[in-house]
Amino acid sequence: MNRLRHLFDQLTLYLPVLLMGMLAMATYWLVRSTPGMEAPKSAAPVEHKPDYFLRKFSVKTFDSRGLLKSEVTGDEAHHFPDTDTLEVEQFHIRSFNQDGHLTTATARQAITNSKGSEVQLLGQALVERASIRDQSGKELPALTFKGEYLHAFIDTERVTSNQPVELTRGQDRFTANSMDYDNKERIMLLTGRVRGQLVPAKTP
């Protein structure tokens, strides 16, 4: 029971926070890097049609030392003026924290509002953090967080999904029908059919 509780502490401490940070950075730079809209010439009804698009794009950000912080790529990005949203096909981001630890996120499609305060990952959404060593030198297993739908609310620091999700830490695995993670309260709620599989650590 203590190990199960410790596992959830580790999951809630690292992975969702990295997810929200990466998505906030990605959507900020995507929106800032796209061209501005021209003022409409007449008050015609707004249709759900893109007014501009990007193809085979890559957006990189660097820190003050010139080291790569993140790279966002996609096959296509379309802006829809009626909803003021940006839709990215084949979304992919690589992000490095200040210690150089890599986290990646991918999805068939990403949808973000103009402020970057809400991001939806649709279709084979996957967030991965490679295994790392903490300050004491202890190795922390790789973490993954995946599902067909993930919805991040950046301002309120929440990540939700009303569809099945899977969380793994090393060889340990948890699944649930839905999820609601509150980073401010450090609470993760897994609902529906929740299952967990813990693999005993190998003894020397």
Explain what the structure shows.
It is a single chain. The protein has 1 helix and 14 strands. The chain is an alpha+beta fold and 204 residues long. The two termini are 23 Å apart. The radius of gyration is 19 Å and the shape is globular. Strand 2 and strand 3 form a beta hairpin. The strands form 2 sheets. Strands 1, 2, 3, 4, 5, 8, 9, 10, 11, 12, 13 and 14 form a 12-stranded antiparallel β-sheet that branches. The mean pLDDT is 78.
Structural class: alpha+beta
Summed up, the helix count is: 1
**Measured on Cα atoms, how large is the radius of gyration?**
19 Å
According to DSSP, the number of beta strands is 14
- Proportion in helices: 10-25%
**Secondary-structure element string:** HEEEEEEEEEEEEEE
Mean pLDDT: 78
Note the overall shape. Answer: globular
* Spans of at least 5 consecutive residues with low confidence: none
Amino-to-carboxy terminus distance = 23 Å
- Largest beta-sheet details: 12 strands, antiparallel
Q: Quote the beta fraction.
A: over 45%
Primary descriptors:
204 residues, alpha+beta, twelve-stranded antiparallel sheet, two-stranded antiparallel sheet, 1 helix, 14 strands
Q: How do the helices and strands line up, and which of them pair or pack?
A:
Blueprint: H1 2-33, E1 52-62, E2 68-80, E3 85-96, E4 102-113, E5 118-129, E6 132-133, E7 139-140, E8 143-153, E9 158-161, E10 165-169, E11 172-176, E12 178-182, E13 187-191, E14 195-197
Antiparallel strand pairs: 1-2, 2-3, 3-4, 4-5, 5-8, 6-7, 8-9, 8-10, 9-12, 10-11, 11-14, 12-13
